[in-house]
């Protein structure tokens, strides 16, 4: 059965993280879709890029195999302020379902309480923000039901770690992208 990924988008999202993650997951055979938190289907990123989202955030997100929280300078506070969203993250954790966060998305996971006792990584200086996790200085980390990654330069290793967590062999997509030949880490 095809795996599904719900990738969150809120005004101020980090465009390169969000769009690249969706693209990579789709290229690897995951049914990845973006979720917005507003009625307007167009969401404005932190650099001003406007992207059309696939659907509005709702209870249906719980049907996804993984929920993905990319970064963006103002995103974390907006996600944290949305109690329904934070409850959804906690629900994913309680069910043992996969949760993935990169850059400021890792702060959202910390605030939701899903990093406690798990290895995690995050953006430069986030070691102090991810206090409940065992912070490791790696590009992307998978521990139990959580995948974390550092930031804007890491969508590829982040997506490949999500594939690993979903039990998907990423060898073919890595080869097509010449990832190893380009010095991917």
Order of helices and strands: EHEEEEEHHEHEEEEHH
Shape: globular
Would you identify the CATH architecture?
Answer: 3-Layer(aba) Sandwich
Q: What's the level 1 CATH class?
A: Alpha Beta
Notes on the protein architecture:
- By secondary structure, the protein is of the alpha/beta class.
- It has one domain (4-176): Class I glutamine amidotransferase (GATase) domain (Rossmann fold), CATH 3.40.50.
- The protein is built from six helices and eleven strands.
- The chain has helices at 15-27, 75-81, 83-94, 105-112, 155-166, 171-176; strands at 4-8, 31-36, 42-44, 50-52, 55-56, 66-69, 98-102, 119-120, 134-135, 140-143, 146-149.
- It has a seven-stranded mixed beta sheet with strand order 5-2-1-6-7-11-10, sandwiched between helices. A two-stranded antiparallel ribbon has the order 3-4.
- Strand 10 (140-143) and strand 11 (146-149) form a beta hairpin.
- Helix 1 packs across helix 5 (155-166), helix 2 packs parallel to helix 4 and helix 3 packs across helix 4 (105-112).
- The chain is globular.
- The chain starts with a strand and ends in a 9-residue tail after the last helix.
Structure summarized in a few sentences:
This protein has 6 helices and 11 strands. The chain is of the alpha/beta class.
For the structure shown, list the relevant keywords.
alpha/beta, 185 residues, globular, 11 strands, 7-stranded mixed β-sheet, two-stranded antiparallel ribbon, Rossmann fold
